[in-house]
Amino acid sequence: MERPNQQFGKMERKDRVETISVTLSAQIACPAAEAYRFVADPATMPQWAIHNVKGIRPLGNNEWEIETPRGAGKLVPHYTREFGILDHEFIDPKEGSWAVSARIVPAGATDSVYMITLVKPPKMPEEVFRKSMPLVEEELQAMRRILELR
User: Fold this and answer.
1) What angle do CA 73, 86, 38 make, to 5 degrees?
2) Is the pLDDT of residue 98 over 70?
3) What's the rounded Cα separation, in Å, for the pair 96 and 94?
4) Which domain holds residue 35?
5) Residue 1 above 50 pLDDT?
6) pLDDT at 11 over 90
């Protein structure tokens, strides 16, 4: 199985709390515009965010209620199609609020790359954060498979 690229980052400064982040990416055999249209539709999330989003419904005002394995949460998209930006807030009932940075960028005329950076919420234990990354990797592969079969 092809695995996304993964990089862990850790920043420490004496005047700041430690920040831990992970950037994942997946190459997709699908044009960027098509991939963006699919991923930018929050209603598709249960199809590919298979570990974190079990259901979703619009609330209005650009907010979506999500059903997670940990209870009801919220998704607040901050998308900009022109630049392939798929940033969003993922508000989890138990793990806290995640400010997620994500992009779809072209990789030639027929391929694209999806990149996502996740920053550990302050109250989440580092071990829990790190153990959740393989699940996110599986979600990226599910997204890739769906897009490549379209």
Assistant:
1) 90
2) yes
3) 6
4) 5-149
5) no
6) no
The CATH number of the domain where 48 resides is what? Answer: 3.30.530.20
Quick: pLDDT tens for 43-72: 999 999 999 999 999 999 999 999 999 999
Assigned token pair, 72? 């009801």
Q: Phi/psi class of residue 96: alpha, beta or left (left: φ > 0; alpha: ψ in -120 to 50)?
A: left
What pTM does this model have?
A: 0.85
- Say if residues 91 and 75 touch (Cβ distance below 8 Å): yes
The pair of three-digit structure tokens given for residue 81, joined into one six-digit string: 């199609």
Nearest to 95 by CA among 135, 47, 59: 135
Contacts of 89-95 with CB under 8 Å at 24 or more apart are 90/52, 90/66, 92/52, 92/68, 93/68, 94/70, 95/70, 95/121, 95/124, 95/128
Residue type, 83: F
Residue 136 has pLDDT above 90, yes or no: yes
User: Structural domain tally of the chain?
Assistant: 1
Q: Which helix (H) or strand (E) holds 20?
A: strand 19-28
Two structure tokens written together for 32: 């960027």
The helix/strand/coil state of 130 is helix
Structure tokens at 123: 């109250």
